[in-house]
Specification:
Layout: H1 2-23, H2 31-44, E1 50-53, H3 59-66, E2 71-75, H4 78-87, E3 93-95, E4 108-114, H5 122-135, E5 136-148, E6 152-158, E7 161-168, H6 172-181, E8 185-192, E9 203-210
Parallel strand pairs: 1-2, 1-4, 2-3, 4-5
Antiparallel strand pairs: 5-9, 6-7, 8-9
Bound molecules: S-adenosylmethionine.
Length: 215
């Protein structure tokens, strides 16, 4: 497990500059992202703290800031966080692992996680959901995005670098079943086709869910 996480961290450390160049303004080209993030900000209202898990270079954390949500960002890659801090010096970013969050139980008002689990096995996705459920407050909101499908792709090139990494797609049945098993309720999933010429051509899902009261 530790070696697999180190491999993910090394990958994102090695492509952080290229990733930042490629993705920093991406929400401007993705109307559904903007709509979804606006809905998230309305539902979070003024509750805090809010965390962006697997925040990468912080473009989503910053988009939320512009909508009035003071979110903080967490990522396993120190180099991605360096890019995030350089671009968004007024946002708090912290190194950490989604699979072992260093937050108290029931301490977080809302969590967002955009494509952060693309290298996770199904067991790791479940572990991450259990961690997120643990740290969210009752009625806490979780917004999660993923690539829809059944396949696992072995990638040998990413942003011009030679790599060797699995890229996971998940069915919505798997994700919603897993969230339900982990105790989440009120699951609302929105799927869309990829935007041509803007992003990797995979079907996308945005999923809102809530930790019920009394848990
Ligand atoms: C595909 S990128 C997505 C980044 C950003 N959320 C976005 O939408 O551009 C995946 C990110 O998740 C981070 N990540 C992967 N595994 C992680 C873990 N176990 N804990 C924290 N961050 C992780 C990576 O370092 C990387 O920045």
């Amino acid at each position: 497990m530790e070696e697999k996480l180190n491999k993910i961290r090394r990958l994102y450390d090695s492509v952080s500059k290229e990733y930042a160049d490629a993705f920093s303004g991406e929400h401007e080209k993705k109307p559904m992202d903007r709509e979804i993030l606006s809905r998230f900000s309305r539902e979070v209202d003024n509750e805090n703290p809010v965390w962006d898990l697997g925040c990468g270079l912080g473009q989503t954390t910053n988009y939320l800031k512009n909508l009035g949500i003071q979110a903080s960002g967490l990522d396993i890659s120190g180099q991605m966080l360096d890019q995030a801090r350089r671009r968004h010096p007024d946002i708090h970013f912290q190194q950490g692992n989604i699979l072992a969050l260093e937050f108290e139980d029931s301490s977080i008002a809302a969590i967002i996680s955009f494509y952060a689990m693309v290298h996770f096995t199904k067991d790791q996705v479940e572990k991450a959901f259990r961690e997120i459920h643990r740290v969210l407050r009752p009625n806490g909101l979780f917004l999660f995005t993923y690539h829809v499908g059944e396949e696992t792709i072995r990638i040998s090139e990413f942003l011009g670098k030679q790599i060797d990494m699995d890229f996971m797609f998940f069915t919505t049945d798997f994700i919603t079943g897993c969230l339900t098993d982990c105790g989440f309720k009120q699951i609302d999933t929105i799927e869309r086709d990829p935007y041509p010429g803007v992003e990797y051509q995979s079907r996308r899902a945005y999923l809102f869910t809530t930790k019920p009261e009394g848990e």
